[in-house]
Amino acid sequence: MKILNLYAGIGGNRKLWTPKGDEHDITAVELDPKIAKIYQDFFPKDKVIVADAHQYLLDHFKEYDFIWSSPPCQSHSSFRQNICVRFRGTKPEYPDMKLYQEILLLKYNQTALWIVENVKPYYQPFIMPNLILGRHYFWSNFQVEINRIEFHRDKIRIAQIPQLQKIHGINLSKYKLENKRQVLRNCVLPKIGLHILNFAIEKEKTLFNIK
Predict the structure, then answer these.
(1) What is the pLDDT of residues 94-119, one digit of tens each?
(2) How far is CA 18 from CA 4, 168, 197, in A?
(3) What is the rounded CA–CA span in Å between residue 67 and residue 102?
(4) Nearest CA to 197 among 155, 150, 138?
(5) DSSP 92-152
(6) pLDDT tens digits for range 69-83
(7) CA 69 to chain centre
(8) 43-60 pLDDT, tens digit each
């Protein structure tokens, strides 16, 4: 499939998509050049674009068979509410509504397969997700069944860099990043990424009657 991977980060969700490296035609969009460089090192056959993923989606969403979008989650996270309650001094901020803009754009304009991922928010979602898996919410236009997936929900919340690298199977020891732990925490577990892609592939086969 021709795949668009938005807000790609270092590619946690994408890690297990192509064991041989070339099963799919993948374009990744990441705004931070340092993080985009790491992604390119990990997945040299992917096309990596340093750009605003939100705008790129609007301009190019019709060009792909499958779209994965993981917009920034910090302004939605339930952890933000916990911090505010605990310390009383956390500066409030507006939730980044690009999340819901992308869901609505894809829901009403995209006929190809798509999924939008974010964390469990501190508020009641304005649009209810199709799937809740651990600390992640997913909105999509195809059904994903929950099988036996280990998602390390509690471990990820408290894990430090060595544990996070082990959980994701990603080694960042040779890279200098300002907040390496946060970069790793932002990753979707590779097993979850593969699980969802497999359902997208089966859906694609059904749509086009491919055996």
Answers:
(1) 888 999 999 999 999 999 999 999 98
(2) 14, 16, 10
(3) 11
(4) 138
(5) P----THHHHHHHHHHHH--SEEEEEEEPBSS--SS--SEEETTEEEEESS-----S----
(6) 999 876 667 655 554
(7) 6
(8) 999 999 999 999 999 999
Between 150 and 204, the higher pLDDT residue: 204
What pTM, to 2 d.p., does this model score?
Answer: 0.88
Record the tokens describing residue 57, joined without a space: 């989606």
Query: Residues in the chain, how many?
Result: 211
Are 54 and 102 within 8 A, CB to CB?
yes
Compute the distance between CA of residue 18 and CA of residue 3 in angstroms, rounded to an integer.
12
How far apart are the C-alpha atoms of 29 and 27, rounded to whole Å? 7
- Class of 2-149+190-208 per CATH? alpha beta
Q: Whole-angstrom Cα distance, residue 200 to residue 205?
A: 9
Q: Which token pair is 85?
A: 């309650």
The whole-angstrom separation of Cα 38 and Cα 128 is: 33
Distance between CA atoms of residues 156 and 158, nearest Å: 6
